[in-house]
From TrEMBL, chain A:
The keyword Nucleotide-binding applies. InterPro entries: AAA+_ATPase, ABC_transporter-like_ATP-bd, ABC_transporter-like_CS, FeS-cluster_ATPase_SufC, P-loop_NTPase. PANTHER family: ABC TRANSPORTER I FAMILY MEMBER 6, CHLOROPLASTIC. Belongs to the ABC transporter superfamily. Ycf16 family. SMART domains: AAA. Coiled coil: none annotated. GO terms for molecular function: ATP binding; ATP hydrolysis activity. NCBIfam families: sufC. This is Transporter. It comes from the Bacteria. Pfam families: ABC_tran. The lineage of its organism: Bacteria, Pseudomonadati, Pseudomonadota, Alphaproteobacteria, Rhodobacterales. Keywords: ATP-binding, Nucleotide-binding. Residues 2-248 form the ABC transporter domain.
Amino acid sequence: MLEIKNLHVKLEEEDKVILRGVDLTVEAGKVHAIMGPNGSGKSTLSYVLSGRDGYEVTDGSATLLGQDILGMEPEERAAAGLFLAFQYPVEIPGVGNMTFLRSAVNAQRKARGEPEMSSTEFLKVIREKAKELEIDADMLKRPVNVGFSGGEKKRNEILQMAMLEPKMCILDETDSGLDVDAMKLVSDGVNALRDEGRGFLVITHYQRLLDHIQPDVVHIMSNGRIVKTGGPELALEVEKNGYADLKETA
Amino acid sequence: MMALLKKKAPDARKLEATAARLDALTIPQGGWAEPARRDAAARLRAQGLPQGRDEYWKFTRPDTLTQEDAPRAAVLEPGETPIFDAFDRLKIVFTDGVFDPEASDALALEHVEIERLATSRADIHWAKDLYGTLEARGQVPVDRPLAAFNTAFATDGLLIRVIGRAPKPIAIIYRHESETSDAILHHVVKVEEGGELTLLETGPAAARFNKCMEVDVADGAAFRHIRTQGRDHERRAATHIFGRLGAESVFKSFTLTMNGKLTRNECVLELTGDDAVAHVAGACVGDGDFHHDDTVFITHDAVNCESRQVFKKVLRNGAVGVFQGKILVQPGAQRTDGYQISQSLLLDEDSQFLAKPELEIYADDVACSHGSTSGAIDEEALFYLRARGLPKADATVYLTLAFLAEAVQEIDDEDLQAEIVGRIEAWLFRRRR
Ligand SMILES: Nc1ncnc2c1ncn2[C@@H]1O[C@H](COP(=O)(O)OP(=O)(O)OP(=O)(O)O)[C@@H](O)[C@H]1O
Ligand SMILES: [Mg+2]
């Protein structure tokens, strides 16, 4: 599904290297988790994959379903099936949440040559999914993320994911700022989407989320590299001992 | 009251040039308006026509507005249905400044008296007390010579008296058909106590258009005004609105400007009765050879009044936006609530926004705020929308509409608001890249 090879990334404007050779493959149907100390490059990896400006890939590759994505525009990557749930969802005053989401769904469909979703169908589906995430009608009408609480923003990200039905979902600290109940809602939302054809990359600091969304593979990122890969037990190890034994020794 | 005293005497050369220009013109003769026209001409001779050196014209060159002949302006084939076409309204059409009876509805509307300036003859006409009166009041503390020029030389206009609730809007449609037309129109609107009117004004009007509108809103009356200035790229316009607001009255004006080589819209409002509400808003979108100037002056001279100025400009390809806005709070105008915001969204580095927001306050119990900013599209927001699949050009359109929203939302009627948004959206989508 997602194949990252020897990815090297530096900041465009500065001589600061952030990713130093990331190798990572997420297979369809699998959930991979990435853990790692603050500043190790986890969010940078997710931004580079989704096409944000400001980074320069100096070496390596990333493909989604065999397609090179690094040369694509962000919207092309989205249409190709990539989704990033942002660590810090952006507030967009003046753009209604529902209008935005409907345009996004249809823009992606159009890019893929699929028929647009009618407004009646869209309304029906979004109401259903919003209900599952306990997002009320008022939040749907409000401008995107404006005045949403931290937890509401994260739930809104998952709603977008559910509506867009991407193939490869990257979740950047979607658990941060969630209370226990919201954590359950969000995890249920993610689990509902788990299927054979879809891959997940879940970035988190806490085992707690992984209790709900059980990963197949856990990676540890440190200083811009994947330094260790293992099964779910690796996350438990981090929870117990921190990163002291895992950090890159080079 | 200090502010009222600081006029500078104009220089002799300027006055000579003005006299020479006016000597070549003839004031329309006869009728009740003639004395007011003569007074206005005298005012103008004392002020002089505006020049680039004038403080009030430092951001906008007045020469093409004052020169003898109107610069040529090509007529645009709009390629869309006329705005507000689907709305039930009383249509009054002027083509290149000339009343068009064929295209207009009969000048009759329940609770409203409508006449034309060029044909109303009765010497006891109600408009006699208003014509040129609010314009003259608006000449202090700042000269507005193009308005005095208008009062003196206007060839026609509408005299509208509203004595109850108008059952539908009056729509003045300004068509532009001649490349060299030079139109001067002057409207007088009087909304009597308890009356209510919505006035729509649309269209480019002429190659060069000088328009003045005096609006007297009596106690408890309401006047709503929605204007779109027409998309002809080469047109030029200098417009003035002079409003006087009585107690508990409402005045709301919104202007959409898309294209136009030169536009100067002045709005001068006086809140003279307690608890009055005045909102003036504008949204403009300009691409390339576009210069748009909003100049607003609101005087609070009563207790517990509210005023809002909301101006948003989207500028690209070297377009220029200007905002000069002032709130003057007179002594005793306690509990004034004044808000002023002027913002521009610069879609490239060639475009420019020049702003001079001002507050002058002589009362102590007052809440006034003003803010002026110019900035580019928010890159964070743009990336967020694109990461969800919206093409960059579409995402830019959404963010631009979002930027304009605060101004557009000043239109109370949701259907009219939606029509305006649709037109802006179409303009933006035509330029999508
Ligand atoms: N645009 C930028 N400008 C400057 N430094 C940056 C930029 N983007 C990332 N960095 C730096 O790169 C490093 C990696 O940042 P990144 O946000 O990817 O870390 P992270 O692993 O997601 O951390 P956290 O767990 O705190 O979210 C940090 O040192 C960060 O300061
Ligand atoms: Mg991070």
